[in-house]
Amino acid sequence: MKAVLFDQFGVTPKIASVPDPTPDGKGVVIEVGATGVCRSDWHGWMGHDPDISLPHVPGHELAGRVAAVGHEVRRWKVGDRVTVPFVGGCGTCQECHAGHQQVCHNQFQPGFTHWGSFAQYVAIGQADLNLVGLPETMAFETAASLGCRFATAFRAVVDQGRVGAGEWVAVHGCGGVGLSALMIARAIGANTIAIDISDEKLALAQSCGASATLNATTIADVVDAVRDITGGGAHVSLDALGHPNTFFNSVSCLRKRGRHVQVGLLLADQATPAAPMAKVIGDELEILGSHGMQAHRYDAMLTMIQSGALSPDKLIGNRITLEASIDALTNMDSFAGIGATVITEF
After folding, report:
1. For residue 288, how many C-alpha atoms fall within 13 Å in the half-sphere facing its CB?
2. CA dist., res. 329 & res. 59, Å (int)
3. What gap in Å lies between CA 110 and CA 119, rounded to an integer?
4. Residue-wise pLDDT tens digits, 52-82
5. Is 64 in contact with 86 (CB distance < 8 Å)?
6. Among the listed residues 267, 195, 236, the one whose alpha carbon sits nearest the alpha carbon of residue 41
7. Residue 305, exposed/middle/buried by CB under 10 A (0-12, 13-18, 19+)?
8. pTM of this prediction?
């Protein structure tokens, strides 16, 4: 099969012909119909993820059709339209038994623990536990945008942030995750503030229902601006980028007993950012992480999409070829793209 392959971290990948994957007894092989290009892929390519062994094929936001099925798989057959969370559960550990596959003790992640979806085919384990069936009306490119960014944002807003109607939600960073979080929070009935350094991204955030927008490069103090708009601070604030500054601002802009949700990755030399712990203690703030979403929670999200309450297709930016994904991946840290970039031609 054709795939994007790199054999050194930080060195430009290449298009290569590599062996087709085969399913294990409980797994499937998916023919990739579409796959997203995510900043997590950039972190992996840079060598920030210890799970990656070289040579490697990146990619973890995918949708397509089942092409081969292991002999123990019961729920899926060849031809089924599916997507998959970017974190897969083993099905046997304590967290999986409790329904928390997103923090499975033996989790696997396509594009990290094994070869991913910047390819014509990808193997997925424990298919009966981890695959999600797709509505016939949903395009693969829309479904691919769910697997990391939209599903992660859904869990961050709904399950971890526990956002309620009428609350103020601040979102720091208007990439794919941030825009998804804004759309989801708005659909729940929350008031939302979008914060970014790009007027183009803020304009897209406004079209997704942001109640207010802030360009962090043109205001004196992001935290004060959020407090002014919200009348005392956000009830919930998300760092959707993953940077020491956005983390600090997100925690600092909360009102008393507010909830910060960390979604963006903080890795390498940014892994241990400063935190305003006096405020966390004095204001009884909550600091929460959010790491993907379990396959069994997708139904709630898909129901809202099918009803028209959520429109993730509006967040898709460029549709590109597998060949063009190399430039998209290596330039990901420049934050130049608007919306989610999705590979649709292989």
Report:
1. 22
2. 10
3. 11
4. 999 999 999 999 999 999 999 999 999 999 9
5. no
6. 267
7. buried
8. 0.90
Report yes or no: 160 and 137 within 8 Å, Cβ to Cβ.
no
Nearest to 103 by CA among 293, 287, 288, 266: 293
Sign of the CA dihedral running 112, 115, 119, 124: negative
**CA–CA separation, 26 and 74 (whole Å):** 9
166: region left, alpha or beta (phi > 0 left; psi from -120 to 50 alpha): left
- Smallest CA-to-CA distance from 28 within 66, 60, 64 is with 66
Question: Tokens in use for 337?
Answer: 């793209």
Give the C-alpha separation, 210 to 196, whole Å: 12
CA 120 to CA 34: how far, in whole Å? 9
Q: Which two tokens stand for residue 187?
A: 């659909």
For 132-175, the pLDDT digits (tens) are 999 999 999 999 988 788 999 999 999 999 999 999 999 999 98
Q: Would you list the DSSP string of 188-249?
A: HT-EEEEEES-HHHHHHHHHTT-SEEEETTTSS-HHHHHHHHHTS-EEEEEE-S--HHHHHH
Residue 308's contacts (CB-CB under 8 Å, 6 or more residues apart) are: none
**pLDDT classification of 338: cutoffs 50, 70, 90:** confident
- Torsional sign, CA 252, 254, 255, 261: negative
Question: Could you tell me if 77 and 94 are in contact, meaning their C-beta atoms sit under 8 angstroms apart?
Answer: no
